[in-house]
Design goal:
binds SN-glycerol-1-phosphate; alpha/beta; globular
Length: 249
């Protein structure tokens, strides 16, 4: 089975080329400026989805992106209701930091036969929610307790277990709009314990911050809220991600 997205993520990770995913929340998607900027900056992926969708239409949102860009679109689903066939791939997320059976395996069972028939590339992902100083929509809606921010060992053991279970990506997330992002210490500790690519997101708001997360060991950054407030930031954060290749190379 062809897995172009995953192969590309692996290749870039092996080459120590850092990657940037722009998270688009369909509820807040009201302008295509962000797509133009993402094209200009050469970002790697669009992630589309949200922990809770109130008025957005995921299919319309993916369609608008695809009309203007050839950057692969990956669904980052809050629930199985957000599966959208016209995207390129989907993070098949197991919320391994929580103990909510439905989000560990339940929704996956319901979605599996549908996904099997779709052309979406399935990216199995161990999702680790990290405490960010205040409750996020992700932790409230998922009804799970995030890993305490200062407990890097818990995050590391959780990531290790996720990799041992065969998950292809590990995603450390402080949640959208997090007050405090995942610490460099935790990113470093988790990166030391796994071989699969490490995604980090939640509360990244500057190029300097992005650089630090990458230097700590993140292979891909996921940024959403900061670009909603200031789309131009996309250019400087993407630049930081690309320059990091040169620094590490
Ligand atoms: C949330 O990691 C993503 O799941 C992105 O977070 O919106 O805070 O950038 P932000």
């Amino acid at each position: 089975m062809e897995r172009p997205i995953y192969q590309n993520i692996l290749k870039k990770t092996d080459e120590k080329k850092k990657q940037l995913a722009v998270l688009i929340d369909p509820d807040k998607f009201d302008s295509s400026d962000i797509i133009d900027l993402a094209n200009e900056a050469g970002v790697d992926y669009f992630f589309v989805g949200g922990s809770l969708m109130v008025k957005g239409n995921i299919e319309q949102c993916v369609r608008s992106i695809k009309k203007k860009s050839s950057i692969p679109v990956i669904i980052f689903p809050g629930t199985a209701m957000q599966i959208c066939n016209i995207a390129d791939g989907i993070l098949f997320i197991s919320l391994i930091s929580g103990r909510n059976a439905d989000l560990l395996i339940g929704q996956h069972v319901a979605a599996a036969p549908y996904l099997k028939q779709s052309k979406l590339e399935i990216l199995s992902t161990g999702y680790i929610l990290v405490d960010s100083g205040r409750q996020t929509t992700a932790s409230y809606i998922s009804n799970t307790t995030p890993v305490p921010a200062n407990k890097s060992e818990i995050a590391a053991c959780t990531a290790m277990a996720g990799e041992m279970l065969g998950l292809s990506l590990i995603y450390l997330d402080a949640g959208s709009g997090a007050k405090k992002a995942v610490s460099e210490k935790m990113i470093k500790r988790v990166k030391q314990t796994i071989n699969v690519p490490l995604l980090v997101g939640g509360g990244i708001r500057s190029a300097e911050h992005a650089r630090k997360a990458l230097q700590a060991g993140a292979d891909m950054l996921v940024v959403g809220s900061a670009f909603e407030k200031n789309p131009e930031l996309l250019l400087s954060i993407a630049d930081a991600v690309h320059k990091e290749v040169i620094l590490q190379g």
